[in-house]
Design brief:
By secondary structure, the protein is an alpha/beta fold. It has two domains: 171 residues, Thiolase/Chalcone synthase (Peroxisomal Thiolase, Chain A, domain 1); 142 residues, Peroxisomal Thiolase, Chain A, domain 1. It is 33% helix and 25% strand. It is built from twelve helices and 13 strands. A five-stranded mixed sheet has the order 1-7-6-4-5, sandwiched between helices. A hairpin with a 3-residue loop joins strand 12 and strand 13. The longest helix is centred in the first third of the chain and has 16 residues. The radius of gyration is 19 Å and the shape is globular. The protein binds acetyl coenzyme *A (ACO). The site of acetyl coenzyme *A has 22 residues, from helix 3, helix 7, helix 8 and strand 12.
């Protein structure tokens, strides 16, 4: 049975590796909830939600559509897309803040659901930035030779932790899952070669009160509900998050002009467009799914990647920037040559 370990001698001799995306997949709950349907439940309107956020609808999970169920479906689709089977995967990382249970991890549920019996599986929690953190983590395993192929999943059911009486937050979120398969391949020339070119991660726990869940197993013993200072999050997202993007470009020796697709966390259309404008990224390079999916936290980027790849926008060789900020705050960016 394969285990994960790094042999320093082998690492020295091994060729330089890059983590290449070889498949994508996604899964959305069947039920679609429009803004008009929400307006029957809380004091809001389609006009207010669209104007402030760009969101028109979101998918909401039923009882049977748990985070691990959605995550497994997305991961299976990514495996099929890559033309691989369970035997080919030796690492599963699931980014989620809404696991089915406090433990075991959602990643091990996904691993079992797909019949993967080798390697390691674990969850990673960086809220909305979780998928970027998971890509960066998987990249470290793959480029050091500690794993060969990783399923990187973002899966969430935020509808379970939203306060459905609070109109300032409940209109923003949706459920879903997305996944990619990353494969360690021999590195090609500099930024022209395929794979993850650079990643930049940051966290600053002083901002806890701006965006948090007011419960947990170690404090209240309950799941808790999401609380947010929307205006502060908005300001921080637009004002600060660009530092990791600039760093990711610099590390790879590229600029915003070289970019083919900007695939940010889908929280709010205004945040996304303001960030792109600040960075000099043309608006027609933005992949936007927030109108259809709402904010699905760690799932939003892999969902958007899958949409843009399957509709033919993202092509092999394209330069793609993913970027997100979430509770903590934690934020990060990764530059990928597709
Ligand atoms: N429907 C109607 N009116 C509403 C609603 C609603 N759903 N929610 C709030 N309002 C009202 C407020 O009560 C307020 O009324 P008042 O002026 O009478 O007091 C008014 O609308 C304006 O409220 P603001 O909070 O100032 O509205 P703002 O323009 O800041 O938009 C929003 C709010 C959309 C939450 C915005 O601040 C935002 O997008 N922030 C970022 C938060 C975010 O995206 N969080 C996701 C998680 S973190 C992440 O993923 C990055």
């Amino acid at each position: 049975m394969a285990t994960l370990r790094t042999d320093p001698e082998q690492s020295r001799r091994a060729p330089k590796l890059r983590s290449v995306v070889v498949g994508t997949g996604s899964s959305l709950p069947a039920r679609v909830v429009t803004n008009a349907a929400l307006a029957e439940r809380v004091d809001t309107s389609d006009e207010w939600i669209v104007q402030r956020t760009g969101i028109r609808q979101r998918h909401i999970a039923d009882e049977s559509e748990t985070t691990s169920v959605l995550g497994t479906q997305a991961a299976r689709a990514a495996l099929q897309d890559a033309g691989l089977t369970a035997d080919d995967i030796d690492l599963v990382i699931c980014a989620t803040s809404t696991p089915d249970h406090t433990f075991p991890s959602t990643a091990t549920q996904i691993q079992a659901g797909l019949g993967i019996h080798q390697g390691a599986a674990f969850d990673l929690q960086a809220v909305c930035a979780g998928f970027v953190f998971a890509v960066s983590t998987a990249d470290k395993f793959l480029t050091t030779g500690a794993a060969r192929r990783a399923l990187v999943v973002g899966a969430e059911t935020f509808s379970r932790i939203v306060d459905w009486e609070d109109r300032t937050t409940c209109v923003l979120f949706g459920d879903g899952a997305g996944a990619i398969v990353l494969e360690a391949q021999e590195a090609q020339e500099a930024a022209e070669g395929r794979g993850v070119l650079s990643t930049s991660l940051r966290s600053d726990g002083r901002h806890r009160e701006k965006l948090y869940v007011d419960g947990g197993p170690g404090s209240t013993g309950t799941t808790g509900r999401l609380r947010m200072e929307g205006r502060d999050v908005f300001r921080f997202a637009v004002g600060q998050v660009t530092d990791v993007i600039v760093e990711a470009f610099e590390q790879a020796g590229t600029t915003a002009e070289d970019l083919d697709w900007f695939v940010p966390h889908q929280a709010n259309r205004r945040i996304i467009e303001a960030s792109a404008d600040k960075l000099g990224i043309a608006r027609d390079k933005i992949v936007l799914t927030v109108d259809r999916h709402g904010n699905t936290s760690a799932a939003s980027i892999p969902l958007a990647l899958d949409v843009a790849r399957r509709d033919g926008r993202i092509q092999a060789g394209d330069l793609v920037m993913i970027e997100a900020i979430g509770g903590g705050f934690s934020w990060g960016a990764a530059l990928i040559r597709w």
